[in-house]
């Protein structure tokens, strides 16, 4: 497994807004940091299971940073509100999402990985390719360029004491070690979400939008098979949980005994 980060430096103060859970402050230990994202169309069932995974990691003594995108910092949460509530064109939407992501990486994700935390992130860049790329039809080449700029290790990397900037020896693009993809037919997701909450700008899109988003996720999995774990999210909650459990146990990241 390629480490996500080699080292990090951030001149910005870390924020509590990343919902860091438990664990004392420790020396940076990049080799133990684990970055896991959760993806799927709205209503696929991600939130139902992320907290259970956080508990499982914590019961094995790991510090967990539980966070989400867009969001995870004070600034990124403001940007999230704009993106979810205000009408805008797809380029503006993509830029705001990547701006939020940069702040989130600098302030929360990179420092957490350096501490050796398990970072559980409800959505990351695959969502941008699925929603803005496949869903909105925005140019994926532009998204790929933004991904390289925003997720570049340069500027996040420094000496282990956090003082001197250090050029990475090779270009590092920070991405999850594992992406758990909750694959659910859009019609099923719509049924699950019906009447459950006031829909935001994405959730109020027609089912055809979510068909495109779902295809976008399928394409992402094809492009990154080593990173993606597909979960059949149409199963009942217990079966979905067992599928997730199996992925983490097989990777050796959790003991079977830590999981219900
Ligand atoms: N396996 C399941 N079978 C039936 N309903 C489920 C299942 N998993 C979750 N749900 C229900 O579906 C709804 C959406 O689940 P959840 O909020 O976990 O999805 P999500 O992927 O986090 O959605 P979003 O990304 O839109 O926030 C909730 O009402 C939840 O209780
Ligand atoms: C990261 C990211 C998210 N979105 C969309 C997808 C969802 O509709 C919302 C977030 O809501 P959730 O309840 O927290 O899942 O934002 C997007 O369009 N592009 C992205 O990169």
UniProtKB/TrEMBL annotation:
Going by the UniProt record, its keywords in alphabetical order are: ATP-binding, Kinase, Nucleotide biosynthesis, Nucleotide-binding, Transferase
Q: Which InterPro entries match?
A: P-loop_NTPase, Thymidylate_kin-like_dom, Thymidylate_kinase
Q: What does this protein do?
A: Phosphorylation of dTMP to form dTDP in both de novo and salvage pathways of dTTP synthesis.
Q: What is this protein called?
A: Thymidylate kinase
Record's family?
Answer: Belongs to the thymidylate kinase family.
Biased composition annotated in UniProt, kind: Low complexity: 12-24
A single GO cellular-component term on record:
cytosol
Q: Which residues form the Thymidylate kinase-like domain?
A: 38-147, 171-242
Show the catalytic activity.
dTMP + ATP = dTDP + ADP
Biased composition annotated in UniProt, kind: Polar residues: 1-11
């Amino acid at each position: 497994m390629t480490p996500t980060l080699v080292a990090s430096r951030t001149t910005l103060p870390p924020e509590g807004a990343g919902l860091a859970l438990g664990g004392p402050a420790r020396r940076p230990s990049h080799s133990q940091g684990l970055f896991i994202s959760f993806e799927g169309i709205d209503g696929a069932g991600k939130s139902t299971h992320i907290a259970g995974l956080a508990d499982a990691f914590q019961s094995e003594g790991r510090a967990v940073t539980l966070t989400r995108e867009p969001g995870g910092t004070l600034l990124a949460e403001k940007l999230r509100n704009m993106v979810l509530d205000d009408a805008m064109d797809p380029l503006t939407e993509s830029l705001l999402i990547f701006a939020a992501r940069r702040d989130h990486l600098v302030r929360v994700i990179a420092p957490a990985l350096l501490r050796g935390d398990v970072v559980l992130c409800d959505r990351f860049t695959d969502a941008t390719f699925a929603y803005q790329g496949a869903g909105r039809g925005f140019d994926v080449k532009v998204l790929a360029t933004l991904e390289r700029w925003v997720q570049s290790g340069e500027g996040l990397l420094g000496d282990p004491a956090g003082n001197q900037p250090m050029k990475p020896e090779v270009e590092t693009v920070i991405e999850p070690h594992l992406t758990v993809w909750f694959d659910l037919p859009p019609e099923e997701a719509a049924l699950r979400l019906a009447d459950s909450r006031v829909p935001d700008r994405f959730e109020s899109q027609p089912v055809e939008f979510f068909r495109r988003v779902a295809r976008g996720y399928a394409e992402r999995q094809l492009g990154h098979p080593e990173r993606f774990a597909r979960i059949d999210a149409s199963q009942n909650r217990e079966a979905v949980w067992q599928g997730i459990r199996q992925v983490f146990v097989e990777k050796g990241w959790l003991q079977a005994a830590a999981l219900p």
